[in-house]
Input
Amino acid sequence: MKIAYLDCFSGASGDMTLGALLACGADEAAFRQALANLNVPGYNLHVRRRKVEGIMATDVDVELLEVDQGHGRHLSDIEAIYRASGLSPRVREQALAIFTRLAEAEAKVHGTTREEIHFHEVGAVDAIVDITGTCILLEMLGVDAVYAAPVPVARGFVDCQHGRMPLPAPATMELLLGVPTYPVEIRGELVTPTGAAIIATLAQGRVGEMPAMTPLAAGYGSGKKDFGAPFPNLLRAVVGEARNLQTSAAGADAGRSPTTVAVLETNLDDVPGETLGYVQERLLASGALDVFAVSAQMKKNRPGTLLTVLAAPEDVRRLSDLLFAETGTFGVRRTWAEREVLDRAWETVETPFGSVRVKTGSRDGKEVTAAPEYEDCREVAGRHGVALRDVYRAALAERYRR
Output
C-alpha cells in the first residue's frame, strides 16, 4: 500500500501541501490539466522553485483575478461545483469531505448549521484550488492513505473576514480537536483552516510518528511567511510503500511475510442502491484497501447485500464508525486475514492518444503483471472519441515495447 506522510514541522496550509506533493514527482502539466476539470475560473496558478533556509522547495501561489466581495459560499455551492466538474469520483469525494469538515467547524464556532454557514475565505477560489489540487495530486501519486506528524501551534492573532481572531484560529482549533499538537515559540499562523481540514479529514486517526515505510520520494512545499532561522517555513511530504509490521510467519514464504488486514462485513437489507454506492466511495476515500458488495438472500427471504471492507489494522475503528453512521447497520463483523501483495510501481507511457499511467506488479524482483490506469484511459478515450479498449491496448503495447 502506498502512503504519504505529511511532516508538518512548521505547520500546514493548502498551498504548502500542493507544493510538497508536486515536489514528490507529480507531473506539473498533468496536474494543471486535471485541475482544469474543476471548471472554476478566476485564478492563475504560479509554481516556482525557491530556497528556504538552504532547502530547495516548491512554492505554489493561487493568484485571484477577481476581488472577493465578502459574500462567501455555502456548502451547497461547493457541492454543485464538484457535481458539475469532470474530476474523478475519488477526488470529488475526498475534496467534498474536506469542505464538509470545514463547514462543520465553522458552523460550531459561529453557532449555526453547516448548511447555513458562509465560508468566506475558506470558500474562496484559492481554497477550492488548494483542496481539490491536494486530492488530485494524491491520486496522481497513487497514494492509498495519508499520515501526518503532530501539528505545531503558535500564539498571536490573525485578521480575517470575521475580525481579529486568536491563534490557532477558532475554526482551526475546532478542526484540530483530537489531533496531537505541541506548542512552539512562534508568533504567527502556522496552521491555516485549510491545512487543518486536510490533515483532520485525510489523516484522521493516523497522526503521529512516521509509520514503517520504504520512502520512494520526498518533497518540500514552502509557505509565504518568513519566520527566520532556524525555523524554515516548509511542509515535507514523504511518499512510499507501507511496511505493515503486524505479520504472521504461518504459511509465509521465506523472506516474504504476508501482511495482516481486517475484513469488515455487514449484511444490509434496507439500504437503497444510491446509498450503497455513496458508502463505497466514502470508504475508499477514507483509506479502505478495498470495498465490494455481493447480493445475498437474507432472513425472511429478503434480498440484501453483503458489504465487505478490507482495512489496515489502524483504520478498523474509523471505517467501522463510518459503516455504522452511513448504513444504519446494527453490527459489523470483524475477522483477520493475511494477504500477500505484489510490489507496485507506476510508469507513464506515451500512446498515440496521449499519456497513460501503467501500474506494474512484481514478485521477488520479477514483473508479474501490468495494467493501464482506468481513469487515464477513460479520459484519453473520451477526449479522442476512441474505444476504451483501444487505449488499453495502445498503453500495454507501448509498455512492453520498451
